[in-house]
Amino acid sequence: MSVTHTRLGHHGVKVSNLCLGTMNFGWHTSEEDSFHIMDRALELGINFFDTADVYGWGGEAGSTEEIIGRWLAQGGGRREAIVLATKVYGTMKRKANRPEPNSDGPGLSAYKIRKHCEASLARLQTDHVDLYQMHHIDRDCPWDEIWQSFDVLVQQGKIVYAGSSNFAGWDIATACQEAARRGRTGLVSEQSIYNLENRMLELEVIPACRHYGMGLLPWSPLAGGFLGGALEKHDGGRRTEENFAARVESKRAQLQRWEDLCRRIGHPPAEVALAWLLHNPVVTAPIIGPRTVEQIDSAVRAAAIELDAETLKALDEIFPGPGGEAPGAYAW
Q1: CATH classification code of 5-228+269-318
Q2: What is the per-residue burial (b if ≥16 Cβ within 10 Å, else e) of 160-173?
Q3: Which of 2, 92, 196, 200 has the largest count of CB atoms under 10 Å?
Q4: Where does the pLDDT of residue 234 fall: very low under 50, low under 70, confident under 90, or very high at 90 and above?
């Protein structure tokens, strides 16, 4: 059991078709278990690891990068074996910091990009990041300033590729056109929410990624657990949070059809949800966030599932998308 490897969009680097998301590390998952998950990922062929400077919920921003850094510091070829991605945009709140100046709030200023990249490298205990992603669009900062900052980091050998996250289709187009004007590669990937329940990306983001040769990295592929057998877990008493229960009850009929379909084809819902994403040629790698080693094994099984045309049609009926791509979804 192992994953396959594919190019990141139309670019040269090859990554696993599942990306290990680390947002749970140090929060839902202990450091020891996080180490086991990363080791297991490598054993299964997952070489694409994603994090962000602000991750560290339940602790302080940056603590997730520090956990990854301590794992990398063990050596054994770990750093050389992975394509490492992190992000910049958010405000870093750390106990040891002096009060942050206003210029270091959320955004993509040259000042912020330089400082936060250096800090991420220190926490990750590495000299470079393979994919440095803008965690959100900053429409108040000129693209000349943003791309110049990324150019400097590339020239210094501190980053290899640039990516985006949570960009609109027109933001992707603007970023790529501005990079082309500078004679630069531009964005190689977009990371955004995409799953059977939330298909809004199909309107404009997916067409933009296809046009510019970018790989799509869907986060929340299970819609916060909604697509991972939510009805069965709720009714069986395994998930009792008030918000989760209300969500399940509001969509019980849809969930019943979904979980019945998964039983008919003989695969767990979480695996079918991942398999549906992987059937889309624009998707390079869904970002999985396992809390246990067992969950990462399940995700890898999903990568081997092939969904036939009848099943895909049934999924479209249960979870209808926005009507196709713009403008055809709402005009002629």
Answers
A1: 3.20.20.100
A2: bbbbbbbbbbebbb
A3: 196
A4: confident
Rounded to two decimals, the pTM is: 0.95
Return the bridge partners of 88, or none.
134
Q: Return d(Cα 156, Cα 75) in angstroms, integer.
A: 24
> Residues 25, 26, 29, 32: is their CA dihedral positive or negative?
positive
pLDDT score of 302 more than 70: yes
Query: Quick one: which of 3, 38, 1 has its CA closest to 289?
Result: 38
Give me the pLDDT at residue 103, please. 46
Q: What are 56-112's pLDDT values in tens digits?
A: 977 788 899 999 999 999 999 999 999 999 999 998 877 766 555 444 689 999 999
Give the separation between CA 112 and CA 85, rounded to whole angstroms: 18
Catalytic residues: 55
145, 149, 150, 153 alpha-carbon torsion, rounded to 10°: 170
Tell me the HSE value of 167 on the side-chain side, using a 13 A CA sphere. Answer: 31
Would you kindly state where each structural domain of the chain is located, as residue ranges? 5-228+269-318, 230-267
> Which tens digit of pLDDT belongs to each residue from 193-214?
999 999 999 999 999 999 999 9
